[in-house]
């Protein structure tokens, strides 16, 4: 797979997590609390501006799901290796309300995540 382009989403930002499978994988399934290896791109919902990309660093990232933002903890389980999923994550499930001290506080975030490995 290659780095995805994330198109600007029309309409208001959702108030709930929105998960959309772009490619359904057929490998191991990611489980809540498990380890995942992913490639991902993140953009700001309102501006479409990219704020993070493992693709640009040239390497995938491995994480325990427990250590990630709620939107990832809820949005990745059920994905299968080889899959690509888009998550639209409201601030409550990302970095909290505006003024929360994180540069992305108060922002709705869009991620496209490729699941490389899950265990």
From TrEMBL:
<keyword id="KW-0413">Isomerase</keyword>
<comment type="similarity">
    <text>Belongs to the FKBP-type PPIase family.</text>
</comment>
<dbReference type="InterPro" id="IPR046357">
    <property type="entry name" value="PPIase_dom_sf"/>
</dbReference>
<feature type="domain" description="PPIase FKBP-type">
    <location>
        <begin position="33"/>
        <end position="119"/>
    </location>
</feature>
<dbReference type="GO" id="GO:0016853">
    <property type="term" value="F:isomerase activity"/>
</dbReference>
<dbReference type="InterPro" id="IPR001179">
    <property type="entry name" value="PPIase_FKBP_dom"/>
</dbReference>
<protein>
    <recommendedName>
        <fullName>Peptidyl-prolyl cis-trans isomerase</fullName>
        <ecNumber>5.2.1.8</ecNumber>
    </recommendedName>
</protein>
<dbReference type="Pfam" id="PF00254">
    <property type="entry name" value="FKBP_C"/>
</dbReference>
<keyword id="KW-0697">Rotamase</keyword>
